[in-house]
Amino acid sequence: MTLFVLATHLSFALTLFLLSAAMTWVMLRVRILDIPNHRSSHEQPVPNSGGVAIALTVMIGFALVYAVSETRIAERHMIGLGAATVAIIVVSQLDDLGKLRTFKLKLATQILAAMLLLVFGIVIKEVTLPYVGTIYVGWWGYPITLIWVIALTNIFNFMDGLNGLASGTAVLVAAAFGLFTFMEGSLFVYILCYVILAAALGFFIFNFPRGRIFMGDVGSQFLGFLFAVISVIAAGYDASRTTLLLMPLLFFHFIFDTSFTFCRRLLAGEDVTQGHRSHLYQLLNRLGWSHVQVSLLHFAMSGLQIFGGLWLLQIHSRNRLVVFIPFIAAEAVYAMLVMRAARRRGLI
């Protein structure tokens, strides 16, 4: 990459950052409020429209890349990505406005958005198994893609509960995934990652350390959906052919927290479709850790997972699941300590 091209990319990213920050500032004055309830981690009504700024910035960046850049994936894949993300934005905004009343309806729309990807050919083609290597999954790629995209969409949504936690993690993951895919030879995914980075960072400065505005479902579902999709694109449709395991590793602390909490609540006989305040990060906050402290802890986890990503890319594909072992062990210890303290305090 020449210095001129690098300067062009940096200028484009800076412009999108300023656009996102300006739109977030405007959204602060839009009276779409998150009213506190028994599940909230805040005490006063807070504007809940910051995700609109994130989504619009990304879509503007995406449209410009589509219009003027030759570094893009096949046109039908571009159209599928655009159509699916627009569907997520529209439905999530309806949810933020109180127009969707049930989790089942929200899930149904996520399935429809994910199926748009499949219709336009964005499907997982292969997976890597330990001691086996890479295998082509054939038609199994369709349900695997569907499950992965819907899962990460909801995981990111569930983890958006404290100031800066989700937006800061989005900034770190977008930066890391963009860098790693660029190192692997990417052009399109690398550009899309810094578009996401700029959009999330423009919101983040209003969301952390003091939560002046929230991203709402339109931000959290959109980002979760987009991160899931770009991992599929990077693995099978971008020049980088980056391993599909990289994104789950970068989001491992989110995936573990959500999976652990889901299983614990299911075994306890709770209704897992109902909102609650018993994620590990929420329990840590209720134990006395501030929003800033919990978010900084998760940023540190993200940093370690980014180093894990570097390790992942350096070893043979058949051995890559080994990289997850220290993170599983660390998260298990973290969960044990939080649960023990929460039980002592009668929080669960």
Strand content: under 5%
The dominant shape is: globular
Beginning-to-end CA distance, first to last residue: 54 Å
Please estimate the helix content: 55-70%
Alpha plus pi helix count: 13
Largest sheet: 2 strands, antiparallel
Write down the domain tally. Answer: 1
Which structural category do the helix and sheet elements fall into?
A: mainly alpha
Helix and strand succession? Answer: HEEHHHEEHHHHHHHHH
Unreliably modeled segments: none
> What value does the Rg take, in angstroms?
19 Å
Strand order of the largest sheet: 1-2
Number of strands: 4
Q: Please, what is the average pLDDT?
A: 90
Could you characterize what this model shows?
- The protein has one domain (11-344).
- A hairpin with a 3-residue loop joins strand 3 (126-129) and strand 4.
- The strands form 2 sheets. It has a two-stranded antiparallel ribbon with strand order 1-2. The chain has a two-stranded antiparallel sheet with strand order 3-4.
- The longest helix has 25 residues, at 3-27.
- It has helices at residues 3-27, 50-68, 75-96, 103-119, 141-158, 165-183, 188-207, 216-236, 246-250, 252-267, 280-286, 291-314, 324-344, and strands at 33-34, 46-47, 126-129, 133-136.
- Helix 1 (3-27) packs antiparallel against helix 2.
- The N and C termini lie far apart (54 Å).
- The mean pLDDT is 90.
- It is globular, with a radius of gyration of 19 Å.
- With 348 residues, the chain is mainly alpha-helical.
